[in-house]
Amino acid sequence: MVILVYDGECNFCSNFIKFLLKINKNKSLRITSFNSKWYNDFKMENQIRDNVDSIILINSNKMYIYSDAILHVIAQANKLFFPILILKIVPKPIRNFFYKLVAKYRKRISKQIKCTLPTQSERKYFL
After folding, report:
1. Three-state SS across the chain?
2. What gap in Å lies between CA 124 and CA 27, rounded to an integer?
3. C-beta separation of 55 from 5 below 8 A
4. Kindly report the CA angle at 93 between 101 and 10, in degrees rounded to 5?
5. Tens-digit pLDDT profile for residues 3-61
6. Do the beta carbons of residue 70 and residue 102 sit within 8 Å?
7. 126, β-bridge pairs
8. Is the CA virtual torsion 9, 12, 16, 21 positive or negative?
9. Pairing of β 2-6 and β 29-33
10. pLDDT in the model for residue 22
């Protein structure tokens, strides 16, 4: 199972989740927010600090954060997007600098959206 943990109170992050669900062909992808019971239990079991400021991708025994999480979840959601992993040739500090820059201003970048509920077919991907 591939699990993506995101900030459910962030419009920018919610828009990314909508995009991900549109392209997703991976039946094992699951999505949850930092406020979910599943993530709180996982955090306790794995001694994860509370101040993670990134989406988290959990895939088998690996955890990805920052730009790695974005690249890997897009590539795993749909094989057509697998070539996005070529961006890993850009050094991680540079990729993460831009990730953190966007993350810092994400609430200003994204317009406020109305809270939309996932469709019936999308609900199966949420924990």
Report:
1. CEEEEECCCCHHHHHHHHHHHHHCCCCCEEEEECCCHHHHHHHHHHCCCCCCCCCEEEECCEEEEHHHHHHHHHHHHCHHHHHHHHHHHCCHHHHHHHHHHHHHCHHHHCCCCCCCCCCHHHHCCEC
2. 9
3. yes
4. 30
5. 999 887 777 888 888 899 999 999 999 999 888 898 888 887 877 666 677 889 998 87
6. no
7. 31
8. positive
9. parallel
10. 92
Residue with tokens 């050094």: 91
Contact 13, 70 (CB under 8 A): no
Of 57, 76, 70, residue with least CA distance to 16: 70
- What are the residue ranges spanned by the domains of the chain? 2-119
Distances from the Cα of 104 to the Cαs of 41, 69, 124, in angstroms?
Answer: 27, 17, 31
Residue 121: phi, psi to the nearest 5?
-70, -25
Tokens read off for 15: 């828009």
Distant-in-sequence, close-in-space partners of 81: CB < 8 Å, separation ≥ 6: 23, 74, 75
